[in-house]
Automatic annotation (TrEMBL):
Keyword Hydrolase listed: yes
Name under which the protein is recorded: Creatininase
Record has Hydrolase as a keyword: yes
Extent of the signal sequence: none
Any GO BP annotation: riboflavin biosynthetic process
Record GO terms (molecular function): hydrolase activity, acting on carbon-nitrogen (but not peptide) bonds, in linear amides; metal ion binding
Family recorded in the similarity comment: Belongs to the creatininase superfamily.
Keywords (A to Z) from UniProt: Hydrolase, Metal-binding, Zinc
Gene3D superfamilies listed in its UniProt record: Creatininase
Pfam families the record matches: Creatininase
Amino acid sequence: MLTTNSKWPELTDVEFAILPVGSIEQHGWHLPLSTDSLIANGLATKLAGKFNKSYLLPLFPFTSSFEHSGFPGSVSLKVSTIAAVIEDILDSLEFSNIKKCVIVNGHQGNHFLRNVVQELNRFGPRVLLTPSKSAWDIAYQEAGISTTISKDMHAGEGETSLIMHLNPETINPSGVKDVDSPSRPLFEVLGMKRYTDTGAIGFPSRATEEKGVALLNILVKECEKVIMEFVENE
């Protein structure tokens, strides 16, 4: 793989770029604000290592996290801003004859990215958004996560397990508290504060590093298959 530490003459035969997209938002009492960014970067780095002709871009840390408004430290950009930044990045890559890009999304609240990607691909395959909801569902099941991603949607067993593997030094063990909040009918209206006191929704007490290793490896496997098909598709 190539990175921004590479020299420009090395970037003459790149098949696609990889852009990790994270967020800066609260993740309960026990996980860092950078949780989604750490996951996106960790997954993107492992994926880039699978492809010799990939170009790993630096993490884009800001996305849409307005559901976390009211929690200190969370930062959001408007959807229109994010879409414009992504399009600018793609245009810049095309000047280097890099015509395809894989977005590795670490913030599952970025639902709008699916529509952005559809629009960008209207004239042909240009952008792939990973991991898919299906990839996450498979990873949760095969890694032995005790519940669904819907019930464990934020700073729960899955994300805590991943951070235990990727950046364990960022965890505050004394802040771990399970929050069972499966019904969230006004989530888009009232945000996280309506449904959780800690900022987490899920079961972080069930997390283990072994589950985090399994989650990451399964996500890599699922994403790698789709990326290969994307790269081969003209």
